[in-house]
Backbone:
């Protein structure tokens, strides 16, 4: 019996096209859902980082307790009632910020539709109950402030004795968030339509490989949605010269950007503190060989005060580069906070001490020249053996104790 011309293709095309249409829809839904989830989480992380930075900057630069006298906010003896820094934050990141004394707004960038500042208004009672009375942070994706809707985050403002005297707020208007999400939804929708249209033109020769590659992307996105940011996507997918290859590349870039956002410190590109905790916990649970080195830059505040914060950032980046070069083959390093770093060597104690001494010497000999100004930079190190304690937190504590011994005994040394 003679086969009807095109019969097999007519039968197979619906089988090929239907899964592609369904997978395209699934990729769109998963992609938008993932983006919305991670984007809103990244906004929350950004708001947390903003409030933490404000508090850290004030604590780092000014000593003393907060006081509110004659409608002016003081920290120690210094009047800090100046909204310049808050306005700069809003210009750079579209984040509104507010300082509260108790529940009263005393400095803010929030304005109503007529441009009237919200200074003098009070926080919602729900916020006050959590932050002021319980001393806890408060976050919400649905805040109404001065007639505008916000995604916001509040943290308590505490004096040295732990007394909660006010709050700091950081928030982003939901209209800005939804505008970005709408753009992404449209992008995904348009891209899906294009991919479906392209699928109509493919031959049966490539249909099987196309479905296989789409399934690979789907599995990859599913792994990311489940929190596995170290999932891999096969080279065959990303080497394709079509829409599927583009999706694979975008998925990889999304994973890499999410991984960088979650795991890395933005300035130094070293691991952040949370990532370091997770990695150390995994090493500790497997009883692997490791040592911890706690270190910080000597007299770093003097660098910022003398040469400016841009010079301080330059020093942090240069030091991070030297640390990365020293540690990369033997472990990992993180920015622990400010000018403090935590290094993890998967080596024995003596080898770790030797590597640390090499690092101290390389920093001592490095040319730290910023805008034609040479700076003398040294670091102090404390080394602890991971085999001394069952809990890795105790190893960190031991390294930290040794670091402070070194700082109290003249700095620029390795205490082992």
Residues:
């Amino acid at each position: 019996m003679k086969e009807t011309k095109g019969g097999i293709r007519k039968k197979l095309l619906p089988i090929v096209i239907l899964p592609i249409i369904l997978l395209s829809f699934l990729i769109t839904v998963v992609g938008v859902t993932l983006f919305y989830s991670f984007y809103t989480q990244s906004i929350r992380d950004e708001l947390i980082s903003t409030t933490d930075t404000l508090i850290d900057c004030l604590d780092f630069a000014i000593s003393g307790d907060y006081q509110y006298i004659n409608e002016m906010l003081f920290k120690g003896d210094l009047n800090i009632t100046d909204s310049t820094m808050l306005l700069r934050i809003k210009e750079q990141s579209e984040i509104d910020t507010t300082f509260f004394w108790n529940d009263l707004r005393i400095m803010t960038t929030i304005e109503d539709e007529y441009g009237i500042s919200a200074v003098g208004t009070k926080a919602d009672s729900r916020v006050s109950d959590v932050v002021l009375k319980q001393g806890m942070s408060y976050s919400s994706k649905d805040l109404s402030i001065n007639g505008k809707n916000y995604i916001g985050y509040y943290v308590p403002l505490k004096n040295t004795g732990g007394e909660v005297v006010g709050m700091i707020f950081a928030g982003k208007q939901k209209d800005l968030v939804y505008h970005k999400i709408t753009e992404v939804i449209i992008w995904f929708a348009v891209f899906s339509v294009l991919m479906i249209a392209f699928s109509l033109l493919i031959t049966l020769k490539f249909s099987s490989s196309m479905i296989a590659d789409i399934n690979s992307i789907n599995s990859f996105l599913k792994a990311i949605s489940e929190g596995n940011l170290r999932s891999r996507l096969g080279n065959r997918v990303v080497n394709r010269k079509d829409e599927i290859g583009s999706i694979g590349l975008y998925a990889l870039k999304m994973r890499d950007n999410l991984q960088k956002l979650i795991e890395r410190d933005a300035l130094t590109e070293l691991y952040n503190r949370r990532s370091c905790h997770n990695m150390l916990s995994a090493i500790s649970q497997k009883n692997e060989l490791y040592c911890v080195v706690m270190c910080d830059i000597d007299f770093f505040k003097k660098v910022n005060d003398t040469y400016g914060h841009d010079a301080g950032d330059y020093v942090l980046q240069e030091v991070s580069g030297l640390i990365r070069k020293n540690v990369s083959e033997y472990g990992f390093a993180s920015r622990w906070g400010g000018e403090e770093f935590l290094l993890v060597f998967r080596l024995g104690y003596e080898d770790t001490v030797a590597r640390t001494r090499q690092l101290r010497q390389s920093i001592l000999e490095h040319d730290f020249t910023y805008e034609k100004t040479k700076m003398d930079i040294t670091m102090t190190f404390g080394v602890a053996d991971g085999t001394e304690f069952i809990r890795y937190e105790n190893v960190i504590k031991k390294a930290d104790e040794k670091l402070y011994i070194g700082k109290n005994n003249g700095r620029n040394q390795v205490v082992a």
